[in-house]
User: Fold Tetranectin from Collichthys lucidus.
Amino acid sequence: MDIQRICLMFCLLLLAHCTFQQTTSSSKRKNGKKDNAAIEELKKQINDIVQELNLLKEQQALQTVCLRGIKILGKCFLADPVKKNFHAASDDCIAKGGSLSTPLTGDENDQLYSYVRQSIGPEEHVWLGVNDMVTDGQWVDQSGSNVRFKNWETEITLQPDGGRSQNCAILSTTANGKWFDENCRAEKASVCEFNIV
Assistant:
């Protein structure tokens, strides 16, 4: 009888032990799922914070640009008097987070003209973010969209008149902000524009 009781007690203990392990294992799996969900939530929060921080850095950089340059109709403009070809000037603006200036209205063009005269000089030409490199006569901005506003000089020289050899546009301070087509390899000053977020 003692052996039977011992076997019965052993079996009960073994059963209790197995049940406890299953419960613990099941609990760990549930907690593991909860832990994974918590980790994923923390990762998401960290990514959100990083994105917000990057946006704040962009806004701070943009405010710095506006302080050094000028704000015109929802954009900041920053003049660069160093003369470069069109592609180098464009690349420099892109590296700073902007693009070559592209006036969208007559008022914006007039203000850009005034800013160029004050910041670079009264007898300078600056690259615009406008070209017809892909299709001669089809002037597009740097995103490839057709330019709606144009301010070509048409009274004396009937711009654009360069054909295939002059595929990039400049704003001329000597011609009151009128546009001319120019060889893209020529070296001109530039103005970068930055959209205000």
Observations:
- The chain has a mean pLDDT of 83.
